[in-house]
Amino acid sequence: MSSDGSLVGTPADAISSGFPEAGPPRFASIGDVRSGLAGVDYLADDGISGVVYLADRLAKPVLVEGPAGTGKTELAKSVARVTGSRLIRLQCYEGLDESKALYEWNYKKQLLRIQADAGRSWEQLEEDIFSEDFLLTRPLLEAIRSTEPVVLLVDEVDRLELETEALLLEVLSEYQVSIPELGTVRAHQIPLVFLTSNATRELSEALKRRCLYLHIDYPDLERERSIIETRVPGISQALADQVARIVRSIRTLELKKAPSVSETLDWARTLVVLGIASVDVDQARDTLHILLKYRSDIERAEKELAGVESPD
Amino acid sequence: MLDLLTGFIAELRAAGIPVSLTEHLDAAETLRHVPLEDREALKYTLGASLVKSSTHWPAYETAFEIYFALRGPEFRIDADGADGDGERSERTTDTGADDLPGQGGRHGRGQGGGGEGMTAEEIADLLYQALLGANRSLVAAVARQAVSRYAGMEAGRPVGGTYYLYRTLRNLDLDKVLDRLVEASRQSAAAHGEVDGGGDGAGVPLTALEERLLRDEYQARIDQLRKEIEAEIRRRLVEDRGSEALARSIRKPLPEDIDVMHATRDELVALRRSLQPLSRKLAVRLARKRRHGRKGALDFRATVRHSLSTGGVPVEPKFRYPRPAKPEIVVIADISGSVASFARFTLHLVHAISAQFSKVRSFVFIDGVDEVTEYFDGVDDPAEAVHRINTEADVVWVDGHSDYGHALTVFWERWGEELTPRTSVLLLGDARNNYHASAAWVVKELRARARHVYWLNPEPRAYWNSGDSIVGEYANFCDEVVECRTLRQLERFVGELA
Q1: Burial of B179 per CB tally in 10 Å (0-12, 13-18, 19+)
Q2: What is the per-residue pLDDT for A310?
Q3: Is this prediction's pTM over 0.90?
């Protein structure tokens, strides 16, 4: 496939070529994923490392779902760092359309081009202005055209409208983008794709079917403790342990928004800065607002931590 | 292996998890890349292609444990004696009389030792040690012992795994163990100033915070034990009956398919947890529906008016976008014991999406009736309001047994006037009236005044009109009586209502 990866002009070309070839595997084994990620201070559990490994082998995108602040975006960033790839990020929002996600024609430049030589025939001109020079690439096309290894992060995909989701489908399953005026752009190499979602709405079946699904939940006690120890410099083991325990207890309460890992880390950092070696109730109460962001949650946690039994 | 996978996927589908052909292929592909001996990795990677929703995960996990059960020689059941001691496994053969010593052991434990029921006592001690020391392998060993001791499993007996689980847990009495553990650490803290969990300060009694943390720690360990026990029971059942038969009998329903009336405590927790994202999704969907339902008739007046700017040529036609009126909802819910959890979920769901209705009023009754709308005002967590309803609403008139007749009559007298033709009335309950008068004429009057009257019955349709259920009498005057046993049905009904 000589034309693979470049812009192909004729429809025949577009049809004849198949799936882009998978590059050499990025990871040798599941353990390799885990140790690699640990090397960049991302502590993966069995599920995370397994799915990342599989995504690489099967050349499939990963749909990462889970509560906010559990390291979904961080995972994509860390994988990019481990594999030495470029991270291309598409932040989704309501109203995102293909000119923001895929590509856009640089019409100002096209106008200039038309004005620059008015003498040429229309056919020549048309071929000219719909060429690569006049194409503005947006994140998805960018990720596909890149010759260096790429990690594509489609962040908060659940914010897209249902109809816009369809934009992603071609890229995700075939790793190609069809541009009517140009033909089909296929990937040089298969990017590792991560889609993150906070599950504010059910994603379409079509999208889910094309992805591997990874649910990242709050970490268990040991993992959270090690995360605190790796991410917060200068924290003592005892304090990290205590922080992890208190956070776990708070998460068992029925709150509007349970503390996330990033909030836990913020809290741990605060405690270190304040020079607190061991948290007691008063100190916890004074700093709870870092963990919890709702008035009612804070009140509730204060009550619980002070040992007042809840009526359940 | 591929056969096993096909069977596994068939089981997943039977449990209600949608698995498409592509996903099946992906799973098969997965097997080529993941080392089969790494069971955990296999579980997660297979799950990544087969399960696309976190609420389906528990059902998937159960099925996985059954189909990919550990069947190696080291997991043979005979091997139990090896990690306990020989003496104990001897006694465990005596399964017939396990109830009595179990009881004795429980009493004895509280007093710190008793002569009778030594075997139970030993297990209890071992369990206590295991939980205190957070020794995982010991916990697993205890789980094995407890199952062979208490579950009373017999080969070929067609009983579900939950039965054995229940028997085992009842005998272990984990709540008491929890109290004992906390008590013990409290004492040891007071004595030595040394707590297992990292508290310090010599000779100081535990602060409330430390105690709380310890309790949670032990709770986590006990949950771990419970899981071990479940796994052990499953393993034995697989040995006995084979994967497929077993999978059928202990299939876990998805949270949205759990029968609300007969949910266990754990299931209720799962339900409550899935209720929140569900109501949020429902709200988003309904809002979108409202926004997209446009394209009305041509608005002639607006078109002509707009045409003035183009010299009287109607270039841009204007349409009258329909603005569907938001319905007004009155919920009248039976909150007596039998249907309480169902009423709670419905109230919760209706209020969570109250923005989709122009007004929501809630009434609850047992044999008296009371308005509870105000409990939801200004509370952003419906669960809290529901909790207040349970404790504060004045719903008992005589004896606290459902009396639909009296409740409906009182409702009609006090609030009947306030219904308008835009109101939809939802009646929630099983219509088990304890043989009181039905007062079905009230429903007829409601129907005449209000736009719709729906009856949501949490009982399976087959039970309607049996015993003291008189839902049929009311059904004559309702627009529709809907069977509403699961969250899925409830969600569908509420979605259509709005």
Answers
A1: middle
A2: 40
A3: no
